[in-house]
């Protein structure tokens, strides 16, 4: 357990080193926040209360999307490209020798990274957005820890998905395609382009049931106070359920892949 | 090859300037293009080594941009107009912006890797090769999958042209290819200026995304949606408005929120040339200031 704490701390420090990159990222997130915010204002001007949000809730959603983008590694930039490269070059053999669990190791590193990205790239755009627009901030203090727990579960789901993607490199060797598809799903089905409760009919139902909704839609709704009481427990259960299923699938693939490495003779 | 060497010794024998320099000065742009083509072909071949992955990335790129437009379609499932613009009108803005950006992204899409090369010092390798550095950097990791974005943009333009209720004149038809080409050049200037900026701020390559990806996203929506100051900014400071808004609004017969004479709609080629000139100067200045990595 201590080992993984050290790995997580290392992940945090690794990303904290690049300060200019962090500032550049905050700048970009803020620019995008502004652009999307104006389009949402135009949309909610036409149809107030669309998707059950008023305009300030919709704007809050926009800025939460920008704030959580880096933490959830929805545009890539997490551990997966590194792991894919290790699989392609065969360095993965060394990793498998180590007296640490492969999945837990990378999860610890990714959680460290996510913690930094949440603080370094999440807080500043949110503050800037709140200064420029009228946002719907939580009325009760307890909404904040409830929101953070939901964000944490979302990040674990995000890790589990990207781990599956990385494992595909054992078969495909080049992970670029799979990473691209994962990014695509992460953008669209997390609700980054448009809140999932605006998706019509069956598409909406499917989108809200997919794991990616835990990355933005669920945490945002917790932040906006849409889940309360049992609803909140259900939201957590939904996120945790997907986390368990996807981590389990990752483990299965890992076992299969490890056998394959042995067959190849290393 | 043997010919070149022969020429060189002959000329040097006469006490002229070494042939190597004269050769480079005269044919530099052509040489650059040829080298670009060679490097590009190499990357295409290397991509094709992993066909399943290539197919997925191509589809992924097509889908990434398609989802962008699907998001707009989903918005229009709730409303009839956005910022006073109908769906076909927004489709034209979207298609022009996406196609122009797509062309530029295909040709120069890896320029944001310069920062990484400066940081780890691999830019040195590019400097010792007898090929313009800009050509090498532009063709670096050339990605054929980026055809996906262009395809999708063209499809949306097609949809817009088919559904728009406009009296098409030959001039208005000509505006479309002009906009795409000038737009690609303007975005290209932004890419090159961004790469030049990375000589100063190596880790800040992401700032570039605000102007490139951010710019194309902005141009996909009508200017009436945005605050006037933002519109002024992309008209007069970073002239992205010339990459689609101004010519497209002329085609649509719409008024631009910032008061400008109508002939401004025909300026994109000039603005593009000016931007590329400035970006070239910036690139040159950046490259001159390069001091490899220290120990």
TrEMBL record, chain A:
Pfam families: ABC2_membrane_6 (PF06182)
Superkingdom per UniProt: Bacteria
Keywords: Membrane, Transmembrane, Transmembrane helix
Segments crossing the lipid bilayer: 21-41, 147-173, 185-207, 227-250
Name of the featured protein: ABC-2 family transporter protein
Naturally occurring in which organism (per UniProt): Streptomyces durocortorensis
UniProtKB/TrEMBL annotation, chain B:
Database matches in InterPro entries: ABC-2_transporter-like
The keyword Transmembrane helix belongs to this UniProt entry's keyword annotation: yes
Keyword entries, A-Z: Membrane, Transmembrane, Transmembrane helix
Pfam families, per the entry: ABC2_membrane_6 (PF06182)
Membrane recorded as keyword: yes
Transmembrane segments: 62-79, 91-109, 150-168, 180-201, 230-251, 263-283
Protein name: ABC transporter permease
Species assigned in the record: Streptomyces durocortorensis
């Amino acid at each position: 357990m201590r080992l993984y704490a050290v790995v997580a701390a290392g992940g945090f420090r690794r990303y904290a080193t690049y300060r200019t990159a962090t500032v550049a990222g905050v700048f970009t997130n803020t620019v995008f926040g502004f652009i999307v915010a104006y389009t949402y204002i135009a949309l909610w001007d036409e149809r107030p209360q669309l998707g059950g949000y008023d305009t300030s809730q919709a704007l809050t959603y926009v800025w939460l999307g920008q704030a959580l983008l880096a933490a959830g590694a929805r545009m890539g930039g997490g551990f997966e490209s590194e792991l894919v490269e290790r699989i392609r070059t065969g360095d993965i053999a060394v990793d498998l020798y180590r007296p640490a669990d492969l999945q837990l190791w990378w999860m610890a590193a990714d959680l460290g990274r996510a913690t930094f990205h949440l603080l370094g790239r999440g807080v500043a755009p949110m503050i800037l957005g709140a200064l420029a627009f009228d946002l719907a901030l939580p009325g009760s203090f307890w909404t904040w820890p409830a929101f953070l727990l939901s964000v944490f579960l979302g990040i674990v789901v995000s890790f589990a998905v990207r781990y599956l993607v990385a494992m595909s490199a054992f078969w495909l060797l080049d992970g670029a395609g799979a990473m691209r598809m994962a990014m695509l799903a992460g953008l669209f089905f997390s609700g980054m382009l448009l809140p999932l409760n605006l998706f019509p009919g069956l598409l909406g139902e499917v989108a809200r049931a997919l794991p990616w909704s835990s990355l933005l839609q669920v945490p945002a709704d917790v932040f906006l106070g849409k889940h309360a009481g049992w609803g909140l427990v259900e939201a957590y259960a939904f996120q945790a359920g997907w986390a368990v299923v996807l981590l389990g699938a990752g483990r299965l693939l890992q076992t299969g892949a490890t056998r394959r490495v042995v067959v190849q003779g290393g | 090859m043997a010919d070149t060497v022969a020429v060189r010794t002959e000329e040097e024998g006469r006490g002229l300037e070494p042939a190597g320099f004269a050769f480079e000065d005269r044919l530099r742009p052509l040489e650059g293009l040829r080298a670009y083509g060679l490097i590009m072909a190499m990357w295409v071949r290397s991509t094709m080594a992993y066909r399943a992955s290539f197919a997925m990335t191509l589809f992924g790129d097509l889908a990434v941009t398609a989802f962008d437009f699907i998001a707009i379609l989903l918005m229009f499932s709730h409303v009839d107009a956005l910022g006073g613009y109908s769906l076909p009108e927004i489709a034209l803005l979207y298609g022009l912006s996406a196609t122009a950006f797509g062309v530029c992204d295909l040709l120069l899409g890896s320029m944001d890797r310069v920062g990484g090369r400066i940081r780890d010092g691999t830019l040195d390798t590019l400097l010792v090769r007898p090929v313009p550095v800009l050509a090498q950097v532009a063709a670096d990791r050339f990605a054929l999958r980026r055809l996906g974005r262009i395809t999708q943009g063209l499809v949306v333009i097609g949809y817009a042209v088919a559904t728009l209720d406009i009296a098409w004149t030959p001039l208005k038809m000509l505006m479309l290819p002009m906009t795409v080409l000038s737009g690609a050049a303007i975005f290209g200037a932004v890419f090159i200026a961004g790469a030049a900026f990375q000589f100063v701020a190596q880790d800040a390559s992401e700032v570039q995304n605000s102007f490139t990806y951010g710019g194309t996203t902005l141009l996909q929506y009508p200017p009436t949606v945005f605050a006037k100051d933002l519109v002024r900014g992309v008209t007069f400071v970073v002239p992205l408005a010339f990459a689609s808004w101004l010519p497209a609004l002329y085609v649509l017969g719409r008024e631009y929120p910032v008061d400008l004479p109508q002939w401004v709609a025909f300026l994109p080629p000039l603005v593009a040339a000016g931007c590329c000139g400035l970006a070239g100067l910036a690139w040159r200045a950046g490259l001159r200031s390069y001091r490899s990595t220290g120990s």
